[in-house]
Amino acid sequence: MSNVCLHRLRPHWRPQQVIEHLGQLSLAMNVLPLTPAVVLEALRGVHYHHMSYYDAQMWAMARLHQVPYLLTEDMACGAMIDGVKIVDPFNLQPPLEPTET
């Protein structure tokens, strides 16, 4: 998220604003730790599911922490990947039956 704020929202957001915003978000929700197990699972996602590394890292975090849905606009909406359903939060149409990959 910090990468998006620093690069896509520039020049509207400065680093200090990003620090403050992410600090507030981290108090409002559970932030899961990036561990070696998540990195290894992400690499498995890259290899077997042909994901980019950063998409695979989000997927791996969800999978290992048994989070059933991954909200992202960067992956195939409606896909079910090893028990994690990909949901585009900006897609107003409900996805068809999930496809397991």
- Radius of gyration, in Å, reads 15 Å
Strand order of the largest sheet: 1-3-2-4
Report the uncertain regions: none
What series of H and E elements makes up the topology? HHHHEEEE
| Total count of helical runs of at least 4 residues | 4
| Main pleated-sheet profile | 4 strands, mixed
Q: Which structural category do the helix and sheet elements fall into?
A: alpha/beta
Number of strands: 4
Termini Cα gap: 26 Å
Q: Provide mean pLDDT, rounded.
A: 87
Overview of the structural elements:
With 101 residues, the chain is α/β, with parallel strands linked by helices. The chain has 2 domains: 1-31; 36-100, no CATH class. It has helices spanning 2-7, 15-28, 36-49, 53-64, and strands spanning 69-71, 79-81, 84-87, 99-100. It has a 4-stranded mixed beta sheet with strand order 1-3-2-4, with helices on one face. Strand 2 (79-81) and strand 3 (84-87) form a beta hairpin. Helix 3 packs across helix 4. The longest helix is centred in the N-terminal third of the chain and has 14 residues, at 15-28. It is globular, with a radius of gyration of 15 Å.
